[in-house]
Design brief:
443 residues, alpha/beta, Rossmann fold, 2 domains, 8-stranded mixed sheet, 6-stranded mixed sheet, 14 strands, 42% helix, 13% strand
């Protein structure tokens, strides 16, 4: 079984199927197709499947090389998309890249997409196949969820009839192809043979280190690294709040802190979004015993979740100082994606920000050059507004002429959640500036 699959991997004749064609699955599928493997991708949306099969990339935003890669491998006949799980019957390698969120109320894993993909795959799983979970999952999920579902639905046994691997993705929108090719990966196998086969498979597209480990270690590495980032961002955010409180500017303090050896204070801002960081710390501790209390993890999540609401407070205070009640105000929000130059809105801080402003009675207009509902003209979005709130550091916003913009607003109030502008820039252009970590700076 091992030798047959290894030969197919080395000859690049192994049939590859990717379940989930989003920010992870689509670039992964296309890179393996470019490497020479025959690849099929499964996605439930017929509309997105049709786009892909026409060679059109459904992911927008600045994503270097991806649109060209999709068009190329589809035109070459190396890759196609479908909604039919029957494509799995002839697969020798199956990668699963579906969303693995947490329940908003319980903060426990919500694995409906993963469980559904596993059950559908299991009914068409053939002996000798290698199944790789690229989705980020809680430690213990491979043994406690993935293996039982696949064995029950397929009637096959892991390590005897099929190989099972966890190789967590490590990508960020805007750098999808570069991250897949250049980032180190941990390859966790249910057996040493499974890990070795997966390392050889990924070597076709990954130039960085591939470390073969067990599944539990792989699960821990991925969730722990994102929890680390969350904690570091929370520290930066708390220091920004402290600077506001004592009347200092965190953007002056931070670079001086980082001049000391072994210090790397992260960037504070309007909140943490995306599919990974807001939920991976909860996945990390999801299966811990009742005797373990994740105090730091919980505190970091609370700080970062509170940042969009802090920007609301800055906005309310800015309007109050200008004599405008929030219930009578029009707020122009610049940016709805969670990340600059991306169309990804998952867990976007702007969603929380906009919802709270509307709860307070404000009229809200939104502009985002990459998010379809909000791709109108920027000047129309801000015209007559009582405050302009920058929530995403898109390049388009960095290039704005604040002086020219001032003529289109009712009140020259700038609330900056991402330090797109400095307080000096804003003041010179005649704006009252309210920034995370800076507090109010009069015009």
């Amino acid at each position: 079984m091992r030798d047959k699959l290894l030969a197919a991997i080395e000859n690049k004749t192994a049939n590859v199927v990717v379940l989930g064609l989003g920010y992870v699955g689509l670039p992964v599928a296309c890179l393996f197709a470019e490497a020479g493997f025959p690849v099929a991708g499964i996605r439930r949306s017929q509309e997105k499947v049709d786009l892909i099969n026409r060679g059109i990339c459904p992911i927008e935003g600045k994503e270097p090389g991806l649109a060209e890669l999709v068009a190329r491998v589809v035109a070459q006949g190396r890759f196609y998309a479908t909604t039919d799980y029957a494509a799995c019957r002839d697969a020798q390698v199956v990668l699963i890249a579906v969303e693995t969120p947490v329940d908003p109320a319980t903060k426990k894993p919500a694995y409906s997409a993963l469980r559904g993909a596993l059950a559908d795959l299991g009914r068409d799983l053939s002996p000798g196949t290698m199944v790789i979970i690229e989705s980020t999952i809680a430690p213990g999920t491979m043994a406690g969820v993935v293996q039982p579902i696949l064995e029950e639905t397929s009637g096959l046994k892991v390590n005897e009839d099929f190989f099972l691997v966890n190789c967590p993705e490590r990508v960020m929108p805007g750098k999808l192809l570069a991250n897949i090719r250049g980032c180190h990966r941990v390859v966790g196998g249910m057996s040493a043979d499974a890990a070795d086969l997966a390392v050889r498979f990924y070597r076709s597209i990954v130039d960085a280190d591939l470390d073969a480990v067990d599944c539990l270690t792989a699960e821990l590495v991925k969730t722990m690294e994102n929890a680390y980032r969350d904690v570091q961002i929370a520290f930066a955010n708390e220091m920004a709040l402290l600077c506001e409180d004592v009347g200092a500017d965190v953007w002056q303090v931070r670079p001086l802190v980082n001049k000391s050896p072994y210090r790397h204070m992260h960037l504070p801002g309007a909140g943490v979004g995306g599919h990974c960081i807001p939920k991976d710390p909860w996945l990390l501790v999801a299966n811990a015993s009742d005797g373990f209390e994740p105090r730091l993890t919980q505190a970091a999540r609370a700080i970062n979740d509170g940042m969009p609401l802090h920007v609301v407070d800055l906005t309310v205070e800015a309007l109050r100082r200008a004599g405008v009640e929030i219930a009578d105000a029009t707020i122009a929000v610049l940016g709805y994606a969670y990340l600059e130059n991306s169309d990804d809105t998952r867990n976007s801080p702007s969603q929380v920000f906009v919802a709270r402003l509307q709860e307070l009675g404000a009229r809200v207009t939104v502009h985002d050059p990459y998010v379809r509902p909000y791709q109108g003209k920027l000047l129309e979005s801000i015209r007559g507004s009582d405050a302009v709130a920058v929530m995403v550091a898109h390049d388009q916003y960095r290039d704005l002429d604040l002086g020219a913009l001032r003529a289109h607003v009712a009140q020259p109030i700038l609330v900056d959640g991402r330090h797109v502008f400095s307080s000096q820039q804003a003041r010179a252009a005649g704006w009252a500036y309210y920034g995370v970590g800076s507090g109010p700076v009069g015009a």
